[in-house]
Amino acid sequence: MAVRTVVVVGGGIAGLAAAVALDRSGRRVTVLERAPEFTDVGAGLSLWPNAMHALDALGLAGAVAARGAVEVGGGVRSRGGRWLTRTRNAELTLRFGRPLTVVHRADLVRTLADALPPSALRGGHEVVGIRPDGVVDSNGRFFAADLVVGADGVRSAVRGTPPRYTGCTTWRTITSPLEPDTPGAVLWGRGERIGFTAMPDRRFYVFAAATAARSGSSRAADLRRRFAGWPDPVPRLLAAVDDSEVLCHDVHDLPPLASYVRGNVVLLGDAAHGMDPILGQGACQALEDAVTLAVCLDATADLATALARYDRERRPRTQAIARRAARLGAVARWRSLPATALRDLAAWAVPASATLRSMSPILSWQPPRA
Hints:
monooxygenase; monooxygenase activity; FAD/NAD(P)-binding domain; FAD binding; oxidoreductase; FAD-bd; 13 helices
């Protein structure tokens, strides 16, 4: 069956990227988003080289890069501030063809949405039913589709199965403008970590995680309390945070799914492979999914063949990355002093070149050919 009409459930990064890819291959696409507007309240976002290659395939890498900032370098530091690993973006770019770019999530969502016809974007539609020939929203309205794309996040209604709590809570925010006098880094403590990276307009994206349950204080107050006394520039960055701009979420991931496909329904993004954010690959993998799905559909007129190829190409890769993220997340959540000291020593002993090589299976991705 040839795919002419597509309904995408979810208007975040995954859904919009899929819509752009499918729209540009000549299909009639409708994006249904539960929220009334196509906006994103998230903070910053790291787009690694694989994500930038995916955006290249969508024709949007230049537009996204213009709204972002190239990270000069970064790495991991200890709780005391000592560098354990260093990454130079110039080396990253040379090896993988694109730099690490940091953008505001809302800017990426806006760029993707602007690449679609306004008529394709339907806000205020919560999908409550999936049928062989389309979907039904909460008002009983039916949307016909040859293909339904489930891109509605880790708590996906299209997928149906619940996610699992990882034991980790995260905070994300963006500072007011500061002098960008420090390279980005992640500081690892005992069951806690905090990171930061420069964004455009002299702002910094700050992200933190902890294993302990949240206190009853405000999100910003809890963030400052947990990381009071950490090395510079952490106190300076947190002092430049607007309390109303701090986002706090429990982290969930998914047990591995047996398939990303059911009939004419296909999952992508967090709906398919929600993972621990420690590798910064959630949005990156969603962009890869979107590009790959369009390539698979363009390669054959048979929907079942196209979706089988998509599942074959995406599920092993994304589940391997999710497993890697889960392992690293567990290590980052270690709390005992002997264990964290051993962890930090091991990280310090690994050469930077070896760290870069270890990232190659993830960052060397290129769009598949039809």
